[in-house]
Amino acid sequence: MVTTFDTKPSASAPETSGGSGGSGGTGGPEGRFAIEIEHQVTLLSNEAKQEGVPIVGHVLEGMDNVGDGGGPVADPFAQFFSSGFGWMIDKVGFLRDAIDELDGDAAAGQTAVDSMKQASESLSFMARGHQADITSLQDWQGDAGEAYRASMKQLHEEILGLMHVVHGLGTLTAVTISMVITLRKIVRELVATVLGAIVIIMLAAVAAAVWTFGTSIAVGLAASMAAAAVTAVESARRITMLMDALGRQTERMVTLETIAEEIADSLKRYEKAAGLSTTQSSKDSDPQRWNSSRDKADEIGQDTSGRLGAVTPDARREFDQQELDQAKQELGR
Fold first, then answer.
1. What tens digit of pLDDT does each residue of 310-325 get?
2. What is the rounded CA–CA span in Å between residue 179 and residue 2?
3. In degrees rounded to 5, what are phi and psi of residue 73?
4. What is the per-residue burial (b if ≥16 Cβ within 10 Å, else e) of 55-72?
5. Which of 38, 76, 162, 320 has a 20 to 30 A CA-CA distance from 214?
6. Mean pLDDT comparison of 10-19, 242-251, 311-320, highest-scoring range
């Protein structure tokens, strides 16, 4: 209802065919790697959607809208002031704390989710193109050709796996943002409702004040505080549930991150093939050699600066002596 990121595979997504290398890295039974990731991501996404049931009363899913989709809710305290009971804010102002705890920007959230959706679609397009390239290499025979095709099939599976991971991350992000924004709307409506009820209670209390010698106002204040307290407790209960749910969402995102890191590690085999394997810097791999090279560079720099006429201590002393000798000669004349 409120999640913009659909977890169903795109209709244009390629079939999860092709090998995964058979062994090692992201290998496994041919064509199963991406399917297994898709299954795992789907489970995580479905669990995430269900988090909204106890918090906001329904499953958080849908298209096109992150958040409640109903636009901003008017400040409930504005009605309080317009009704002439601004002096009650000191009594029930704690209700605003729940609203302030639930801050979220639906537009910014939607932009983030749309970016992930676009990235997922780009990976799907890339996988289709790559699969077409594999079939064009069937004439390459021999062990080298077989090894190359096996690696390319594995790459196809890895691209599909990343597509599912990004897609799942978009779903989890949309659900997470929706939980915050939707609960904010619910809390504001709760606060608006109780403030409206307080206005009615206090109007009745003020109207009866003359005949009750002011006792009705005290009773009205007590009733108002009770209603506000009930709303605050209900809001706090839901916010606590939200915090727990967000913790579980974080764990799900970490799972997706782990899958992505495993795929990224497997893709490093292409760095080695291209002679671009990642190594530590000379400083990290051999500190002693690094320091020795640095000292040698300093020596060369000092020697060069001296020969080029830079103001080194020795050059400075030589210059001062020349100045002194010249002054003596002029005095001797």
1. 444 454 455 455 655 6
2. 9
3. -95, 140
4. bbeebbbbeebbbbbeee
5. 76
6. 242-251
Q: Show the DSSP H helices in the chain as ranges.
A: 33-50, 52-56, 76-82, 89-92, 95-101, 106-135, 142-207, 209-212, 215-267, 269-273, 282-285, 287-307, 313-332
Largest CA distance in the chain: 121
Give 46-71 pLDDT, tens digit per residue.
Answer: 999 999 999 988 888 754 567 655 55
- Helices (DSSP H) in 268-312: which residue ranges? 269-273, 282-285, 287-307
What's the rounded Cα separation, in Å, for the pair 209 and 280? 81
Q: What is the average pLDDT value for the chain, to the nearest integer? A: 75
> What is residue 293's predicted lDDT score, i.e. its pLDDT?
47
What does pTM read for this prediction? 0.67
Q: Say which DSSP state 16 is in.
A: -
How far apart CA 268 and CA 22 sit, in angstroms, is: 17
- Are the CB atoms for 178 and 193 separated by under 8 Å? no
180 CB-near residues (< 8 Å, 6+ apart): 102, 103, 104, 242
